[in-house]
Amino acid sequence: MYNYFMLVGRIAKEVEIKTLDDGRNVLNLLIVVQRPFRNQDGGYENDLLKVTLWESIAEIVSDNVRKGALIGIKGRIVSNKKLSEDGQNVYQTELVGERIVFFSNVDTKVEG
Question: For the chain, which domains are there?
Fold first, then answer.
């Protein structure tokens, strides 16, 4: 069985690493990924995706990229179940990055 994703996109906002109460480092990236097909107006649309990075990979990314950088991410998809305020089960899907490739780290205007 396979559980992985691969994305190539640009970082949509400045990166900010956080240290949790238990001492672990986490970084939530917003990545703009262009869709591979044109819409009915002839342009390309983008998806804005949140990818979570943990520990050393979070530190490496935080130290080496900034908004607009073009990166590749490989990771796994995680499903979490939480209880809502009204007691219903709510399922959330999370992208957890495990490998990063730096294509550029230069600032580029990112729309969106």
Answer: 5-35+44-102 (2.40.50.140)
